[in-house]
Amino acid sequence: MPTPPQENATSGITGIVLGGGRSRRLVGSQSKLLLHIGGKLVLARVADTLRMVCSELVLVVRSDQEDDIPDLGIALNMHVVSDTEPYKGPLAGIHAGLSASTTPLSFVVAGDHPFVSRNLVSAMAAAATADGIENPTAVIPRTEGVLHPLHAIYPREHWVPYFADAMSEGETSPRRVIEKATISDYPPVTVFADEYLEKADPRRISLVDIDTPENLNAARKIAEARKFTPRHHSLG
User: Fold this and answer.
1) Cα 232 from Cα 8, distance rounded (Å)
2) Residue 186 belongs to domain spanning
3) What is the CATH number of the domain that holds 192?
4) Residue 231 and residue 86: Cα distance in Å, rounded?
5) Which distant-in-sequence residues (6+ apart) come within 8 Å of 157 by Cβ?
6) Percent helix, strand and coil across the chain, each rounded to 5?
């Protein structure tokens, strides 16, 4: 398994945002991606950061999605696609996003991660090509023993058919698919462990999500604490 190198931005990456999740654990019916954090819609925060390191942005929504997320994605100049039918859920979302990608590598992120780090995306992309661009690997963060497949780099060539096969066999969990690949050593997977994550994202906030009201309140406090003057502001 390749060792993640020091941070090194890699060009030609597609940013894939999964926007079809349901906000079951938040109060009210509004989508998490349409909430405001730090004075900006969550989806706009994610898109603005990814645009700094990605050559194109893809937004994946549900085929039956009736909120304003698809329209917002279009307004943000994202290519909007729906989950791979007849499947549903994050695995179908990842597959649809990778299928729509036009670059060898893609960074997939759940849309409710408001503090995506461009430094971390670049470091993970560099780790994906540590053995050369002709031998790319998926790069999956692992914190406290838990894999994070919804905040990861995937090479399109290997993973589009691999995810398709998994879905056809009835699999619905991205984490189980990654664990299976890690055990069989195919497709290749590089685990981006805690020490590499901390180096790229010292504040350890890139994996913060807003699944619950408590998460949302914590995220808003983080955003408030990160307010800087324009001269010193950084989205790192």
Assistant:
1) 22
2) 13-225
3) 3.90.550.10
4) 49
5) 104, 136
6) 35, 20, 45
